[in-house]
Amino acid sequence: MDRIDAMTAFVTALDEGSLARAARRLGRSPAAITRAVAQLEEHLGTRLLHRTTRALHLTQTGELYLASCRAILADLAEADLLAAGERTDPRGLLSVTAPVMFGRLHVAPAIEDLIEAYPALEARLLLVDRVVHLIDEGHDAAVRIGHLPDSSLVATRVGEVRRVVCASPDYLATRGTPTVPADLSTHRIISFSQVTENAVWTFSAGPSGGARKQVSVAACFTVNTADAAIAAAARGRGITRVLSYQVEEAVADGRLRILLEAFEGEPLPVHVVYPGVRLQAAKLRAFVDFVVPRLRARLAALPVSSGRA
After folding, report:
1. Domain extent listing, the chain
2. What's the rounded Cα separation, in Å, for the pair 188 and 236?
3. According to CATH, what is the number of the domain 163-263?
């Protein structure tokens, strides 16, 4: 058994979602892919996959083994690229993940410029509002918003964003403008679940100082994307709380107003993170050197000051 070939078949089957699609991607027969995975399981003495007519599901052992296979295959691919001259010429597939709206507004344009500058480089951008495990899921780098847990990843800070409360001028004209966080209890709240958890919003003490304040809010409408929360607020349906970059355009054109600025908490950091052992690959070095300054410039141009005294 060629173990590298079998690992490739195993990983490709998971990426493609079926043994048949893996066979098409690798230019082999479905029987050959099935045989390679079966030989790998026989060699290991354990089952890696549960197969059905519709899908493949990893066993608990398969989940652990998949992460190791990805790391081994990534190391081999990097060795091949380095030997072929990739140390000076970025090439191959660069895979990056970022939050949906931030990625669409800021990361995608920077990566478009990157692949224009390096024609031998291909890029894949996964936009999801969750923390993606880079090595397990086969990505080179990620953009993350918020405070980072301790990990083996290298983190490069590119800026910061704010949590802001906002509403439309029409809504405020009808229902009044809250002047302190406690006033929110009398207002209609649109909750963005990725930012507001357990219907509690935390604020700073404001100009008077003191401890942070938590305010319970009763949401009349809860959504799981910032776009939906912002659109509802702009239509005058209520007050929402999102991240500052997400409402930059709506605030600039007057559809939304930012409220309670004196009570905002500390800004949230934005980082580019990546495995340190991968930085030797020219594609990742090119991403860090090319995209990080552009993200810093974009975030620096956003209004960050909260207006607090």
Report:
1. 3-83, 92-156+268-300, 163-263
2. 10
3. 3.40.190.10
What distance in Å separates the CA atoms of residue 1 and residue 18, rounded to the nearest whole number? 21
Looking at CATH, the fold of the domain delimited by 92-156+268-300 is given as D-Maltodextrin-Binding Protein; domain 2 (3.40.190)
Task: Give the β-pairing of 268-275 and 200-203.
Answer: unpaired
Provide the residue-wise pLDDT of the chain in tens; the chain has 309 residues.
788 999 999 988 888 888 888 899 889 998 999 999 999 999 999 999 887 767 788 888 888 888 788 878 877 876 776 666 545 678 888 999 999 999 999 999 999 999 999 999 999 999 988 888 887 777 889 999 998 886 778 899 999 999 999 999 999 999 999 999 999 989 999 988 755 555 788 898 777 666 678 888 888 999 988 899 999 999 999 999 999 999 999 999 999 999 999 998 889 999 999 987 655 678 888 999 999 999 999 898 876 444 443
125 contacts 98 by C-beta, under 8 angstroms: yes
Task: Give yes or no on whether 92-156+268-300 and 163-263 have one common fold.
Answer: yes
Residues 85 and 92 sit within 8 Å (Cβ to Cβ): no
Within a 10 A sphere around the Cβ of 57, how many other Cβ atoms? 11
Predicted model pTM: 0.70
Domain 3-83 in CATH 1.10.10.10? The answer is yes
